[in-house]
Design brief:
Layout: E1 2-11, H1 14-18, E2 27-36, E3 40-53, E4 56-70, H2 78-84, H3 88-104, H4 119-130, H5 137-153
Antiparallel strand pairs: 1-2, 2-3, 3-4
Helix pairs in contact: 3-5, 4-5
């Protein structure tokens, strides 16, 4: 089986601006192709570091990569499955909330507020708090509202005017 995600335009990864202090490019044009086999799969990547100046996009460097992954026997994955199973309701709600948000906005920009942790850390903290109440309709509504509040906190003021 094969799956491909063609060239997508995305902002520079946060780790590069935060940890590596990169400023020589502003975006990536990247694609991934996965080929699965019974006992393993292969991931092929192509990333083009892109300089963005106004409406102009100019390639700076191209990276290609290939990763091989081996399928582990189910019995060796029990600890991971035990960890994931009780969290799946929250993760599903996160996916639904992001999907709804992306249906409402044409452009998504994110900026980590000064002295704030990365967004994923705030969402992980929220998971622990709301997970026990997700089976209740009111708990799910409240969790979705809080997820959106966290997402909006990491967006510039001009971007949060979108629906």
């Amino acid at each position: 089986m094969e799956w491909e995600c063609g060239d997508n335009f995305a902002p520079i990864p946060g780790r590069e601006t935060r940890d590596m202090k990169r400023s020589d490019y502003q975006a990536l044009v990247h694609g991934t192709r996965l080929v699965t086999f019974p006992s393993h799969f292969v991931e092929r990547q192509k990333n083009v570091k892109t300089v963005v100046a106004g409406e102009e996009r100019k390639p700076l460097a191209e990276e290609v990569g290939r990763n091989w992954y081996l399928r582990m026997p189910e019995k060796d994955c029990q600890q991971a499955m035990d960890f994931a199973k009780p969290r799946s309701a929250y993760w599903r709600l996160l996916q639904e909330t992001w999907a709804e948000l992306f249906e409402q906005v044409d452009d998504f920009t994110e900026v980590t507020p000064p002295e704030a942790p990365p967004r994923f850390m705030k969402l992980m903290e929220l998971e622990d708090e709301v997970l026990p109440r997700l089976a209740e309709p009111a708990g799910k509504v409240e969790a979705r509202k809080r997820i959106l509040e966290i997402i909006q906190t990491y967006r510039p003021a001009a971007a949060t005017k979108a629906p």
